[in-house]
Structures are given as C-alpha cells and as structure tokens.
Amino acid sequence: MSATAQAPAADRPAASTALANLRILDLTRVRAGPTCCRIFADFGADVIKVEAPDGVDPNESMSGARDGYDMLNLHRNKRSLSLNLKRKEGLELFLKLVETADVVVENYRPDVKARLGIDYPALKARNPRIILASISGFGQDGPYARRAGFDQIAQGMGGLMWVTGLPGQGPVRAGAAVADSTAGLYAATGILVALRERDVSGEGQWVQTSLLQAQIALCDFQAARYLVEGVVPEQSGNDHPYSTPMGVIATADGFINLAVGGDGQWRDLCRAIQRSDLAEHPDYATQPQRLAHRAQVWALLTPIFAADTSANWLQRLEEVGVPAGPIYRMDEVFEDPQVKHLGLARSVTHPRLGEVTLVGQPIGLSRTPPAVVAPLSDKGADGDAILAEIGLDAGRIAALRAEGIL
C-alpha cells in the first residue's frame, strides 16, 4: 500500500491476508474490469468500487439489477463509494484517494480518462507509485480506439466465432463472455507484474489490455495455426483439430465427452469396447491415420456407444484409463462430487436476499486462500468510512452529499 494509505476499518470482513496491504480503486463496470478487481477483492485487497451518484451515469444498469446474480457475483467483497467525477470537488476527492491507493482500474473508452482528468499522467502526478490498469474494447490507440467494445464483437473480430459451432452452421458465439473474462484475467496478471516490478523500481506504470487482444490470445493454437502454417481453421463442431476420436458421442441415455489423445489411449479404448481388432488396424493405429479416417472412426464407435448408458461407459473407460467425462447442464455441474469437493460454490449473507451462493475463485493457496465474505454493498454505503480514512469529518461529508458530489 502507498506510504500515505490508512488501513481499512477494523470491522471490515477479511477475505484473505494475501493482498491485504493493497488498495484498489475500481472504476469499472459491465464484466472485464469487475472480473479483474474481483480477483484482488477475493484475496483480501481493499477494493473500493467508485460509482456515480444516482442519475449521473445513464449506462450504470448495463450489468443488470444491483441485487441481481451478475452484480452480486462480480462485485462481492468490495466497498462502495459514490462520487461524481464530473464535478471539481468529486475529482479532487478521487485524486486524494489515489494518493492512498496502489492501483486504479478503469474500462472507459480511451478518451474518457483524459476528459475526466484521471489519465495516467494526472494520477502519476499525485502518486508516482500508482498503477493504472486500462481495459478497452480495442486498445488505447489505433484506428478503432474510440469504438465501444462488447464481448460478442470481440469474439467475432478475434476469430472465435468462425472456429465455434458445427461445419457450415455460420458464426457462433461462445456460451460465456470469454473475451470479457479473459481481458479481466490478463489485466489482473499485468497488475501483479507491475506491482512486483514496483518493488524493485519504486515506480508505478500503465497496464493496458483489450477485449480484442484477449480474444486473439485466447484462440492460442488456432491463431498460431494460421500464423505458423498459413492454415485458416474452420468450424469443426465437437471434434478436436487433430486428435481422433476426441469429441461428443451419444450413449443410450445421453452424451459423453470422449478424449483419446494418443495411440496408447486408442488401444485402451479398443479394449474397453471389446474391439481389439481395431487397435492395430492400418487405418486407425496411429493418430495421423485416425485423423485421415475420422468419419470412419466415429461411424464405428457410434453404434457401440449407443448400446449402453453414459454411467456405464464412463466407468468402463475410467477402468482402462481413457479420458472421458459427462456433459452437464449447470444444475448438474454443482451437484458433481468433485465440484463440491473443490468448493466452487461459495455462500454469503445478503441483508435483503438472505443467503446467496456465488462462484468462488478457481485458485487455491495453501496459507492465504481466497474467500467470499461480503456481498455487494449498497451504492455509497461505505462512503463515510472511506472518506473519513482520508481525513474528512462528518460535517464535510454531509455537505458533499447535500451538494450531489456523493
């Protein structure tokens, strides 16, 4: 934490001690930025969600109702301060907070920061150790910099929608906001790198990522396939680009995922289906041969798997070491014994909704694990305490509220 920072209130719930020395000012909304800040909040950082007072921001409802599942899941463990950055007094209070902070995270369009007076030079002038993390749709400069960016647009421009779905189906978006979420994860990674570098240099810096960059990076081997070999990948449905049989297969009562990744696993599969004659068949014995005869491989397996249940197949495949798994709907996900063991569903008490269950962090630390300890605060509910930490008394806070600054 900055040398001028004051510790948060002693009665504030502690999610973890891992990042308890950090203060993060969260100016973000929608998904990418909140995802980034949620990581720090779940590991114990003092994350202050800075929000516009009612009526100032016409787009504040883009993440749905405040007590809705999305807002609750994205903004748990954070404190809330309402602050009108368009007013001189509000801007000065924010810059005063910057003096006590380690990181500011924002996902405005790139030109908005300078217009508000909170771009990196302005923040650095108040605190040379500050790290500004900016998440945009397309980058902080360049021909598309001022465009508004949303997840589905990035999925399309980043190549994902033409490698998702069945052949000939036309472009298909992923069922989760992968560009948004990945941009948030990359931003958090960049912040952690900048914090570590600051330990050496003593100086902050500007961290930048975008939905477009994140989506292209997430395509990974599909993007590398084009860059290295000049091959434009096509939609392949549930099939793996080069491993066969790896995909979805129907059983007597549903579907399972089958994942034969090598020649040894192919021979194990042949044992499981009691077709040892296929193990060394010249058309199927090696991965390149199976790929060349992919349609025939699936044609052989389809009637075999259709003759027994998913549960029986999964047991038989596990016994011989062939990777396979069920294909769950979301209610089934959280009933799975391994998911329960991993603790991905985390409950917290909300003052109006009672106990609500949210999605936990998928990261474990042996000494300082993350936790979900507090729901999203009402807008501005923590403002008095936060402003008192930077020296404002009750009278001044009341006057600011009356003036519409808070």
Characterise this structure.
- This protein has 406 residues and is α/β, with parallel strands linked by helices.
- Helices cover 38% and strands 13% of the residues.
- It has 17 helices and 11 strands.
- The strands form 3 sheets. A 6-stranded parallel sheet has the order 3-2-1-4-5-6, with helices on both faces. Strands 7-8-9 form a 3-stranded antiparallel sheet, with helices on one face.
- The radius of gyration is 26 Å and the shape is elongated.
- The two termini are 25 Å apart.
- The N terminus is likely disordered.
Secondary-structure-derived class: alpha/beta
Tell me, briefly, the overall form.
elongated
H and E order? EHEHEHEHHEHHEHHEEHHHHEHHEEHH
| Strand line-up across the major sheet | 3-2-1-4-5-6
Please count the helical segments: 17
* Average pLDDT, all residues: 95
How far from one another are the termini? 25 Å
Helical content band? 25-40%
**Mind telling me the C-alpha Rg?**
26 Å
Strand residue percentage: 5-15%
Q: Could you list the spans in which at least 5 consecutive residues all have pLDDT below 50?
A: 3-10
